[in-house]
Structure formats: C-alpha cells, structure tokens
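Sequence in, structure out.
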Amino acid sequence: MSTPLLMGATVILAVLTWDGLIHGRAQDSLIRPPQSNAGTGATPARMPKASSQKRHRALLENTVPVGSQPYGVAFDGKNIWAANFADFPGTVTKVRARDGEVLGTFKVGKRPLGVTFDGTDIWVSNNFDNTVTKLRISDGTTLGTFSVRSPWWMACDGNNIWVPTYTENGTVTKLRASDGSNLGTFATGGVGGAMAVASDGANVWVTNFTGAGDGTVSKLRASDGQIVGVYTVGPNPLGVTFDGVYVWVANRAGASVSKLRASDGKVMGTFTVPPEPYGVAYDGKHIWVTGALALTELRATDGAILAKYPIGNTAGVVFDGTNVWVADTFHNQLHRKSP
C-alpha cells in the first residue's frame, strides 16, 4: 500500500519532511496529485477577487511558535493544543486561544499526530508507539495511555473517542472517553487505510486512503460501529469535517474537496482547490482547507473559493469560535486567522 503524507502513519524517521514519507521507510516518495483535475469530476471553484496583501501579511505575521512539525490541532474551549510530530520524545503544546500565549509543552508518546477534545480531556494519537494518550487539560498531566494500532486523526462523538488505524484494510477503534476502555474495533468497509474521523453526533465518518484511484468515506453508526454506507469521493481522501448538515472531505491526490449530504452520503459537489489538500475545518460559514501550497477559504453554501493564503505545508486546522488556527509543519508554528 502506498503511504500518504502524514496525518499519521507508523514512522521511523528522525525527521519527517513534507516530501519524505514514512511507514518504516525513510524518504518514501510522496503521492503526488495529477497535474490537472481532468477526469476527477471536480468542479472548478470560482476564483476569488484579488485578496489584499494586508490580509495575507496579517496571517503570516500572526503566528505562535510550537514544537517541531505540528500536525493535529484541537480546541478545548479556551486553548489550542498542537501535536508536535518531530519532537523526541513526542510533545503537545498548549496555547491560550485569546492571546496566543504558550502555556506549556507536555510529553506524550512517540510521533504524535492527531489530537482531539472530549469535553473534559485532551487525547493524542502516538503513531510510532501504537498508543493514544489522555491528558488533563488544566495541567497536561497524563491520565492514561491506551493501545491502538497505527493511530491517526481521531474524533469524539460526545462519549467516545474514535481512533482510525491505517492498515491494508482500515479499521476504527472506539474508546470510552471516561476511562479509555476499548469498546470495539470495527472495519470501515472501504478500500485502503483509515485516515481521519469526524462525528455528526449519531454517526462517525472515516476517510479511507486508497493509494490509487478514487477513495471512499465510510459512515458508521456510533452506537454499535455498524457500517451505514461507504461513499466514493476523490483520490486519497484525508481530512474530514462536519458542518451540521454536510460532510466535507479533502481529496489529497485529487486537488479537490467533496461535499456529501450527511443524511444519505450523496455527493453534493466536488470543488477544486490548490494541490495536495490536507485538513478541513468549518467556522460556521466557511470551509478551511490546508495543504501543500496554500490555505484555502471556501464558502460552505456553494464551495466557491473566497480566498487563498500563501502558506504551504499546513496540516491540522481548527476553529475556536473566533479564529481559525492552522498548523504549519515547515516553520514549526501555528497561524491564527479571523474569518
């Protein structure tokens, strides 16, 4: 199976570069998207009017230094947490959202990638260790470490943490948030490894990274992990988010994002974005897409591009109710942007 650029994968490299990937092999070639979207079914999104240099400059200047190669980010209601993949041993950094002050950096397992909030505590996926760490948000104390194979980007359904596993046949593991008990590991039904998870409240949505051809996203019932449906999206889907009605998926090798109706999985549109999109987040009106070349802002109603910001090598993205936070893996920092 081909290995994608990280949101998480079993990693042995001492240093991960944007072009060099993992899975027990140093400097594997990054799977590159096609040079055009011909044949991908993507609808070219309308281009934005010329964005002001002032807006771009503000984004580039409004940064917070964190650890080495931050990937996943999460918001706990007051703070942003960033998983620092290349710190050794692994760490997460806690940043106060209102002013960007770094409040602490805490040790977790090796090669942390994903980070999510369960309403009380922070969870971090440690890909090299095949573990997930639970931290108390007040002081970063480790409350527990739980075994899950090759964990990637996680999500919480309100009561449980869902952890995707990137293997030949992807699975997702359900951990009870209160105590980390393993409630089951479930097949996604898709082809390829499970990459990332989003919750719509009643169901979880898991991206299946195929390595070749169109990928899929699986919808599993949160109560028992049963497959509700498996839906075709673009090539090599990675990031996924829920906007309250629709599910959005970043198709890394398709230079596009897909919008699916959560009720039945129908694809409502596929929209072209800059090459190698990675993470996605929703701010109440807009969809934010990270990637190799730019941070892209889309209008959620129709997928129109509203702005492109010239920061590349970005991965995790999260909205804190006021600002969008983006993990810049190349410069070891977070960008903060108001919508």
